[in-house]
């Protein structure tokens, strides 16, 4: 019988994710995929898996999993508190970005993220799950993807692929923060009053509890629309900032709807997306407006930095 995990506690929002699902916007299906791409890539490299292999993504509280099988290496990525409960009843505090040997009967208990939202878990060899429409990513609302489009469920078994023994790998890595989330002007930027434009960049917004993988809802200065509070529905992209009639911004995230009729104030640059999604409920955000050429250069720098960090893992 294949090695597997038994889910003792599924956590709040624990799903299988990879880099996402392309070319289905025309039927209303977003890319989905991991929220924090860099941590996803680091996790797979530390596990010795293909960089595109699916992982378990969790928010705030992660799953509690009991392992059955031959000894394997597991890794947790992100700012995460977790423990390993050994079969002999001893307990080991977990360390992120480090391979940890898991033996038959051991339990990994992912307690919580710390000053962040999303964490990631995988195992040497990876999870034995099926793709749907070219991706392992789970999109919960339409029930599309691995695990029948559902979150992890209590008592389910997660079977694992065969594997090659891998050495213990460790990475000294800190998830840094930035003072501003940088954005480009949206297609409807000029719909909004000069006062609201100035306040958007000079004042802070609070991340509300109504944020999830679909969108981040903010509260702060009301962004006033001086032209049209609603427009004909148009295509949306990840990171776009819509302003509904109440004046509170909504940032579209990985599971966002593919069209929308609220005016688009701006769009978060790709290089800052990982940082954006890790800002927890109740935290404050400030925004900074930049130009397209700077955004392009920052994205190149982001990719170069990610590649350099991956190359440090041997």
List the helices and strands and how they pair.
Blueprint: E1 4-9, E2 15-17, H1 37-47, E3 55-59, E4 64-68, E5 72-77, E6 80-85, E7 91-93, E8 100-102, E9 107-113, E10 118-123, E11 157-159, E12 181-185, H2 194-202, E13 205-207, E14 215-219, E15 234-235, E16 240-242, E17 250-252, E18 259-260, E19 264-268, H3 273-277, E20 284-285, E21 287-289, H4 292-311
Parallel strand pairs: 12-21
Antiparallel strand pairs: 1-4, 1-11, 2-3, 3-10, 4-9, 5-8, 5-10, 6-7, 6-9, 12-19, 13-14, 13-20, 14-17, 15-18, 16-17, 16-19
Describe the protein:
- It contains four helices and 21 strands.
- The mean pLDDT is 95.
- 14% of the residues lie in helices and 27% in strands.
- The protein is of the alpha+beta class.
- Strand 6 and strand 7 (91-93) form a beta hairpin.
- It folds into two domains: 4-159, no CATH class; 181-310, Cyclophilin.
- The longest helix has 20 residues, at 292-311.
- The strands form four sheets. Strands 20-13-14-17-16-19-12-21 form an eight-stranded mixed beta sheet. The chain has a six-stranded antiparallel beta sheet with strand order 7-6-9-4-1-11, with no helix packed on it. Strands 2-3-10-5-8 form a five-stranded antiparallel beta sheet, with helices on one face.
């Amino acid at each position: 019988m294949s090695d597997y995990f038994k889910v003792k506690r599924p956590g709040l929002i624990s799903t299988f994710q990879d880099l996402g699902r392309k070319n289905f916007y025309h039927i209303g299906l977003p890319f989905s995929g991991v929220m924090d791409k860099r941590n996803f890539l680091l996790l797979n490299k530390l596990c010795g898996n293909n960089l595109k292999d699916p992982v378990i993504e969790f928010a705030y509280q992660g799953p509690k999993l009991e392992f059955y099988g031959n000894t394997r290496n597991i890794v947790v990525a992100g700012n995460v508190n977790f423990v390993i409960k050994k079969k002999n009843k001893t307990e080991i505090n977990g360390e992120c970005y480090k391979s940890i040997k898991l033996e038959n009967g051991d339990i990994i208990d992912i307690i919580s993220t710390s000053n962040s939202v999303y964490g990631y878990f995988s195992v040497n060899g990876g999870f034995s799950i099926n793709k749907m429409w070219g991706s392992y990513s789970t999109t919960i609302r339409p029930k599309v993807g691995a695990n029948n489009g559902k979150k992890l469920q209590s008592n389910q078994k997660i079977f694992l692929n065969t594997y090659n023994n891998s050495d213990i790998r460790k990475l000294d890595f800190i998830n840094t923060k930035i003072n501003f989330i940088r954005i480009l002007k949206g297609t409807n930027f000029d719909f909004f009053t000069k006062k609201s434009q100035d306040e958007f960049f000079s004042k802070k917004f609070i991340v509300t509890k109504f944020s999830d993988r679909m969108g981040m809802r903010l509260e702060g200065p009301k962004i006033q629309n001086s032209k049209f509070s609603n427009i004909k529905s148009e295509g949306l992209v990840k990171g776009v900032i819509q302003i509904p009639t109440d004046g509170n911004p909504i940032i579209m995230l990985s599971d966002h709807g593919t069209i929308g009729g609220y005016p688009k104030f701006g769009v978060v640059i790709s290089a800052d997306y990982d940082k954006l999604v890790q800002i927890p409920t109740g935290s404050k955000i400030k925004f900074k407006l930049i130009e397209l050429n700077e955004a392009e250069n920052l994205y190149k720098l982001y990719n170069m930095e990610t590649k350099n960090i991956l190359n440090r893992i041997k």
